[in-house]
Amino acid sequence: MARQDAILVVCLVTMVTTSLAFDLTILHTNDVYARFEQFNKYGSDCSEKEAGSSQCYGGVARRLTKLNEIRLSHSNLLLLDAGDQFMGTLWFFVYKGMAAASFMNKLGYDVTVSDDEMNICFTYLNL
């Protein structure tokens, strides 16, 4: 009888554990450095010719398209960024981080942490 009780307990624990399991997809970006536009393999702006021949990478539009595609098939998704979104291009020097914040909101980031962003937030964004 004790053996049957033990087997029953193991089965119940397994069922409870299994019912609590779920899939979680984690997507991560890092070191964007205000590169909101597409760029070529040298890290320079894409020419029309390069863009027309699929030789460009990155950019907010590409990330948004891919994120929307992934979100359609993954209901439990976290989008994380480890920082260095802001500085790096004219976008930062003109908009002081507001462009990065706007794009990150549009992309739907769940979490971002970085000492650089915290310093910039206090300096420029008045948060």
Automatic annotation (TrEMBL):
Q: Which PANTHER family match?
A: 5'-NUCLEOTIDASE (PTHR11575:SF24), 5'-NUCLEOTIDASE-RELATED (PTHR11575)
Record bears the keyword ATP-binding: no
Please give the catalytic activity noted in the UniProt record: a ribonucleoside 5'-phosphate + H2O = a ribonucleoside + phosphate
Q: Which species is the source of this protein?
A: Dreissena polymorpha (Zebra mussel)
Q: What is its EC number?
A: 3.1.3.5
**Protein name (record):** 5'-nucleotidase
Q: Does the keyword Nucleotidyltransferase apply?
A: no
May I ask which residue range the UniProt record assigns to the signal sequence? 1-21
